Amino acid sequence: MSSLPSISTLSRSSTISELEHGEYDLIVIGGGITGAGIVRDAAMRGLSVALFEAHDFASGTSSRSSKLIHGGLRYLERGEFNLVRKTALERKEIHRLAPHLCEPRLMVLPLRTRAKLLGLRLGITAYERLGAVASKDSQRTWSGSSLAEHEPLLNARRFPFALAYREYLTDDARLVLANIRSAAGFGAAVLNHAPVVGFIREGESAVGVEVRDSLTGREFRVRGRVIVNAAGPWVEAIQRLEDPGSRPLLHLSKGVHIAVPASKLPIRNLVVLKTRDRRRIFAIRRSDIVYIGTTDSTYEPGARVWPEVEREDVEYLLEPLPLHFNIDPLTPDDVIGAWAGLRPLIANPEKKNPSELSRRDELLTGPLGLISVAGGKLTGYRGMARRVLHNVAERLGRSFRKIGEEPPLPGGDFPSGSELADLGLALCRESNLDEETGERLARLYGTEARSVLALGSRPIFPGARAIIGEVRWAVEREGAATLEDLFYRRARLPMFWADATRAVEPLANLLSERLGWNHRVRAAEIERVERQLGADLGFLQVAR
Ligand code: FAD
Hints:
Helices cover 36% and strands 21% of the residues.
């Protein structure tokens, strides 16, 4: 088991001491998908590289997305062919690297007329060509009995046709973790709960960073030849550390998702819905839960780790449901989970509506030589990483090792031809698990699920979806240092389980044992997660 890539919270102090004494080719600020892609690419090419994350890996936008690895039909309609082609092709590649984190699913477009169907078929054909989709996986048309069979909840009187085409569903936070762990396996030094608070300056250059260990309060310095700012919505805050007069770059847009129990909205696929202002949103079935999103509205208060979910966001997302499906209207009281994220979009003075802003990424070099990367999408993270590394190579004045065919991400080495569902069933057979638990473990950990099970296959309490081995795995392999890290971004319980709150205390007890917490720390950790769970549904307290 020791050969598996590891980020161990138990060896945090030795990691810090190694960082203080090292000098790195590259330092990356920010452990979202952008930083994670860069650190993996750099480490695979043989660079010495360190990454610092202010809170937890993926605690920013990269755990709040719609979780689609997609080219984005919307961008095709706007003529952004290049963006669509790159991201559409990327779907296949991420699926190859991590079948558990890039699951093929059908995206269903409900349609009212045959004319609309014919028009969209052309668009989807172009999308499939750009993404080199195999003909066996190409779009299909449903109507009448085929529609009733594949998506029976759809209101077929209003939408007698549907186009179903292939998209991919990921788990954004775990995709980040997989990349960061992989980088650690290639020798990168990575640290969460470690904000960069300043730069080491020599003349006109930044030659390193000042970092605070949030868990102990201790500050330390780390030297690096090139520094990349991949801080997502916080990119400008880091630019201001470099140059207090730096010009604003971003237009932050808030995107909200809500989750309802699948029993209240028993759809089978990913379904595209139209809102009252003619935007497209998604309803996405995953295990026991369907999540619906997203909104897209300018966010003025500035970058926050937990942007608030407003009651009007929730009502806006619930409103289209009874128009599309044969259900009674749902109310905010039916919502069991919600999250909001901030899109770090590149500002354009001519466009004030965030939906009109391009999702392209941009690289900028600041006065001390800091390379800042902003914008982009989860799906395009590998391309962004390659462009950043190209820049880094120029700065270091050397060329890097070619990677060839990238090795799979941790947990992604599925036997040829086998898929996620096969692994889930195999786990059920081998470890006597119920179907939901087997499927959940396969999705979270891929082929590493067997190593997780070897650490303890019992549920954390009778009937729970999470198993005991996940706690040790999260601490010793995935750098979980707080209950929030474990609950929200490792075990992902709010995403899989309508009853996730019941797991808070049992997980805290197990984590206390692993991390040696006293009673006071344990109670504070529980309080923090319970407070956050309450805040996620804070819109319920707001009277109409
Ligand atoms: P982040 O994930 O925010 O990472 C930046 C990190 O930097 C944070 O973790 C932060 O804590 C850290 N940081 C900040 N300051 C410091 C500091 N001083 N020191 C160290 N670290 C610091 N894309 C898709 O491809 N598919 C989708 O379905 C999709 N859906 C989306 C839905 C919504 C609602 C939103 C908001 C976005 C969506 N996106 C999607 C876009 C995608 O999620 C983002 O482009 C991507 O996650 C941005 O990642 P990032 O690493 O740049 O930023």
